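Please predict the structure of the following assembly.
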Amino acid sequence: SKARMVVDKDFVISEIDKRIYGSFIEHLGRAVYGGIFQPDHPSADENGFREDVAELVKELQVPIVRYPGGNMVSAYNWEDGVGPLENRPKRLELAWRVIETNQVGTNEFVDWTKKVNAEVMMAVNLGTRGIDAARNFIEYCNHPGGTYWSDLRKEHGYEEPHNIKTWCLGNEMDGPWQVGHKTAEEYGRLAAETAKAMRLVDPSIELVSCGSSSAQMPTFPEWEATTLDHTYDHVDYISLHQYYGNRDGDTANYLALSLDMDNFIKTVISTCDYIKAKKRSKKTINLSFDEWNVWFHSNEEDKEIEPWSVAPPQLEDVYTFEDALLVGSMLNTMLRHSDRVKIAAMAQLVNVIAPIMTKNDGGAWKQTIFYPYYYTSVYGRGVALNPVINSPKYDSKDFTDVPYLDSSVVYNEEKEELVIFATNRHLENGLNVDIDIRSFEGMELIEHVVLENDNPKAVNTLENEQVKPHKGGKSYLEDGKLVGVLPKMSWNMIRLK
Ligand code: AHR
């Protein structure tokens, strides 16, 4: 079967905000302790951060990292994580029912993000706390000095303000599991008033209001409409969260789940724009897809974890080859909506549903999902173009007319590079593609990277990397056309210059 695509310089979706390639570190499981931070590990630097992990994070070129939660933030006292280590309290961490030692907190995390060349996306607690704690926290982080909280930061060894620009107003406040869960009315009022106070402290910040925890929430999308009614004038973004899994072992249906993500994004955009119209506003609210990934492999094991331990192995999904394909398509989906999706966070970054895994007594390695994330983050910078796709289609359990070819296209003007990301969802057959790139004259093929594997369930371990890309993709240029073959069940990156 054959698919056709037209890629044109003028079919511009948007300049891509690099923060679309963000990620997330929560105080959860071994993300912080045993992940980014492990003072007794042979690769630890003078501050206790693992160099092996930092190297992999740098390789991904993660531009921004959301912190410190997640569900955890909804009962977190930020003051517990600053100041002399010996004074930091051990607390019962209610979201994940573990003990939080607070050996890493705001300042250490800011240090770590500098080490890996990323910015911080900070979340405030709107579960158990509210306006007062949030305004103190931003004063501590961003005010230059001469006040109680900013001087305390200096006393803690941080003379210069952290100048954190992107802030989340709580986490998943629509979810009944959240400590301090709220109705849309309650959250909308609290978020608006907290945003006002935070902006009075630092008018240069950008704020993210909580959207739904998934498109499957019974309150979606009424939650967005009601909360935005309160927050519209005070925030810049609304969040989306979504995790997928292949619980029934139905790969054809699983690989189509990015269509659900596409629909979720479209509905949130429509809801934002409905409130815009209702308010006769000139302002547009953009989207922060600040939790997205595959999450289901570890669900059963997590039920066995004893409560109140320190940094147990929670949410340690071991990703398969087919998960990497869906991750690639989720990235494509967000790029095709990059006119509105300005921030996103692969959840999460290390050990906890993550592209990077570690052993406490060993090294760090790349999970299967590392690869589409890596290539899209590193090469998907510039302007997103709208590919006109004509592909054969299939029906699956939950979807009809699923195109076998899923693609996104990026033009990097600075490097004069055209980059095509493409997944072939076909489980048995390769897909011939004809890509009309006539508006780009004189391009030459740099590389065609392919991620493929005969076994959809193949995984990577520290010792054995079964799933890794190769550069032997079959494509060539012919009369202004790129002609190629995408192997069955494969993720591809074709780069031209
Ligand atoms: O990323 C894991 C958890 O998923 C987060 O803590 C929460 O926000 C979401 O439910």
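The first strand starts at residue 2 and ends at 6. The CA atoms of residues 358 and 376 lie 23 Å apart.
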